[in-house]
Amino acid sequence: MKEKITPYLRSIAGSASVANQYNAGGSEPFSDDTYNDPLHEDDHEVVKGLVHKYSNRALIKVSYQCAAHCRFCTRIRQIGNAEGTLTDDNINNIVTYLHQHPEIDDVILSGGDPFYTAKLTYQLLQQLKVIHSIKVFRIGTRLPLQLPEAFQSDAIQLLLSLIDEIAKQRPFYILLHINHPDELTEQALEAIAMLRIHRVTLLSQTVFLKGINDSFETLHQLYTQLHHKGVIPYYLYHCDAVKGIQHFTVDIEKEKEIATQLTATLSGIAYPTYIIDIEDGHGKIPVPLNFINEASGKLTDFRNKEHEIK
Ligand code: SF4
């Protein structure tokens, strides 16, 4: 992966919690030869760009391009590689596969960042919207936090009007990958507010990152702000086991303790599900939190008092 960062991110890189997610100048470049695919996505890429791992869902990688390259990325092995960009033939093959597999009712556009390649995503969505077996659309993005000014562009405005049109008929979710409250600048919040004008549901995804957001206070602040801005916290991930990025991995017991405190203190719609995406492609597992005393079998409430299960 080539290191890449936007001028906007450089302008807020005074925050170490932002800078350390990227190469903001001080870090050694990563070496490309260690990265692997612990989620086994490549094994399930049934046609170029479409990963069919779970029966009713398909992941479509629109490209491997992003505005900036995150150093902890699960797909760090691919990010920045021009070969990932879907061609007209690739899109036709994806559409054919989806017609042949009407059990796929939920498609997730990712990559790379589908909003960064807005024209290509528009072209793909034009073809997907006429497949009636698709009942739910999702797009994962980090662009509001990496290049918020892009949301003023004609290409993104056109894409948003198409999303709005689809969302009149079918649920459309935008999954914002946000790791730290310092990413929620005024400009980023303006871009997020622009998404809210459309008929989409905004969800957030966060990865636990050592030295960046592995504290209760940081994540409590992040989720409180997201809650206030109409973004529903969805998943809080343990960092995937990609070789070469393990220094970002937080101890699981520490994560469980933080996730337990978040669940005990935030409103029910303001805390995410803490998840581990099991290595070797076995899927996402919600991690049991510390609300049960395993020795006594009693439940612990948010004031730390124990109760019998009756
Ligand atoms: S924006 Fe997303 S896909 Fe792109 S490098 Fe960052 S985490 Fe990976």
TrEMBL record:
Question: Mind listing the UniProt keywords for this protein, alphabetically?
Answer: 4Fe-4S, Iron, Iron-sulfur, Metal-binding, Pyridoxal phosphate, S-adenosyl-L-methionine
Annotated Radical SAM core domain ranges read: 52-272
Which residues are recorded as modified (N6-(pyridoxal phosphate)lysine)? K284
Question: Which cofactor names does the annotation list?
Answer: [4Fe-4S] cluster; pyridoxal 5'-phosphate
Q: Which domain of life is it from?
A: Bacteria
Q: Does the keyword Magnesium apply?
A: no
- Per the UniProt record, which residue ranges are transmembrane? none
Q: Name one GO molecular function term.
A: catalytic activity
The keyword Iron appears for this protein: yes
One Pfam assignment: Radical_SAM
Q: Give the protein family.
A: Belongs to the radical SAM superfamily. KamA family.
Query: This protein is called what?
Result: KamA family radical SAM protein
Which species is listed as the source? Flavipsychrobacter stenotrophus
